[in-house]
Amino acid sequence: MNVKLVFVCLLASMVTMATAKKELLLTQIVFRHGDRSSTRTVEALGEVQWPDGLGQLTPTGMQMHFNLGRYFRNHYLDLFQTDDGWSGDYHRDLFRVRSTDIDRTLMSAQSQLAGWFPTNTSIFAQSASLNWRPVPVHTVAFANDSLLVPFDIECPLYEQLVESHRTSDAWKQKMLEVAPELACKSLGLQKSCTAGDFLAAASKKVNIELDLRNIWILSDDAFCRAQSNKTLPDWISPSNEQGKETFVYLRHLEDWAMYELFNGTTERRLSGGPLLNEMIGQMYSRLSDQTKFRVLLYSAHDTTVAALLEALNTNHWRAHQPPYASAVLVELYREEANPSPQYFVQVTYKNESAVTAWNHTGHVLLVPGCNTTMCPLQRFADVVYDVLPTDWNLECLKTQGAVQKEKYVVAFIVTMIAIVLISVGACQVIKARKRNAVAYKRTGLDASLAAFAVDDEDEEDIVTSSSRPTTSSRRNASNV
After folding, report:
1. Measured between alpha carbons, how far is residue 25 from residues 76, 80, 289, 292, 392 in Å?
2. From its phi and psi, is residue 369 left (phi > 0), alpha (psi between -120 and 50) or beta?
3. List of residues 6+ apart from 313 with CB closer than 8 A
4. Nearest in space to 377 (alpha carbons), one of 333, 314, 336
5. In the predicted model, what is the mean pLDDT of the chain?
6. pTM above 0.85, yes or no
7. Model pLDDT, residue 274
8. How far is CA 150 from CA 168, 326, 382, in A?
9. Catalytic residue numbers?
């Protein structure tokens, strides 16, 4: 009977744990701006007019983020249901927005906020002539923004590492990749050509020396024109079969080159690491009641989203760069348990169209090192530890050679510690054997000889201990 009772209790406990409701404490959302005009114009593609100039958010881009804001509002009103959660109104202690200091990201944030806070939340709600709720958007000078665009500001080590990719095996293999037949033909090449041949021919076509690092200049301008229904030359226009193949292959090369910027632990540490570090810090601040934030928004760029995803090392469709208005949601949950609450992190990538599929819930990602998508907070912090910079500015000042030297120094220190430990162990074994030998001799000697043997052993101990450095002193010397 007692056994049955224990079994029932255990089963009930397991069911309770499996069905325990998790309470959302904080969500942090990093998103790319919406649809924009080209940031550079390739003259060979023809003259083009952009009403608001280069690199500006289009009306479509504004609509994208308004849609996204509406989705987030409805989504999180359902999740924040506790008395101390978020009621749907703006409050500076609960809701904060950070943006890069670029027109399109600032305007994207404002457009999204219009969806987050409709007119019925506004102090102007009774005024038919002002259907708007102002919400502050914080920023810093672009040249100083080491949080959202650390890869675009001065960082000697990062620049050196990225430059070294040009001679990497991955780069060489990509240049030897066989390009699509129609893409080759559209540039006047043979049916079979490599990516290197394709880039060389495209360079002549547009009178710009192109490689994998700057192919985005051509690809992006063509993409922006196509998105806004601007006319493109036949060889690159998606409206015909050959041109479409060229257009798509250019995008493919641009996508590959973007993720190559963040390929490597140190590269990820210096690019996506600062933002990830900030987000983890905000989670712990929330737990310790240092802040009351429920929603933190970061309005930025495709490279910001890509760098964060790479820092998390998740499987996130690396074949394609983050589309307009795509977003990464990093959510912190609490689950009541004995003897204390448990905390979990969940990462979601929302990369469906913000025009036609803006209410799509996104894709929950598994962070490598976590057993489930709902990852324990401490485990989450541990698995990303290597890409969290201790002092970004200081690490940036190092050179690639210095980093390599540090690795050798660490390896040397580890080796020396191992040698010391082995030596200490060997000395202990030798010492034990000598003691055993002395003890054996005592059994066949008279008392005076036995007393002499004891004196000899003590003397031996003194000599051994004084000639062998202690484990503590060796370790301190190794750490210096």
Report:
1. 11, 8, 11, 9, 28
2. left
3. 268, 367, 368, 384, 387
4. 333
5. 83
6. no
7. 98
8. 23, 20, 23
9. 33, 302
